[in-house]
Amino acid sequence: MTIVTVFRSRLRSGVDEAYGEVAEEMSRLVHLMDGFVDVKFYTSSDGERVTIVRFRDKETQRAWAELPEHVAAQRRGRDEFYSWYDISVSEETYQRSFVAPASS
Length: 104
Fold this sequence. Notes:
It is a single chain. The protein has a 4-stranded antiparallel sheet with strand order 2-3-1-4. It has helices at residues 16-32, 58-66, 68-81; strands at residues 3-11, 36-43, 49-55, 82-91. By secondary structure, the chain is an alpha+beta fold. A hairpin with a 5-residue loop joins strand 2 (36-43) and strand 3 (49-55). The chain has a single domain, classed as Alpha-Beta Plaits (2-Layer Sandwich). The longest helix is centred in the first third of the chain and has 17 residues, at 16-32.
């Protein structure tokens, strides 16, 4: 089953530009990972950021978590960017999709 990572965070004041550069590079790298499924980014009206990343399996998710460039970005996040974060990694136990038929 797919592994789902939910990363919630708040940025410190004045870090948007530097954070954006690092986030863009991490997005580029994760898309290159074998076993990467998809990623979505959201920002709520109160400023909380949410990133949802799906991987094919635990091994793929672990490889991403331990990728040296990602480890360096995590460290920089704690040292410079985040005032708070919460991360949860879960195994998907059910998944279903629906796509409406195209209108004629």
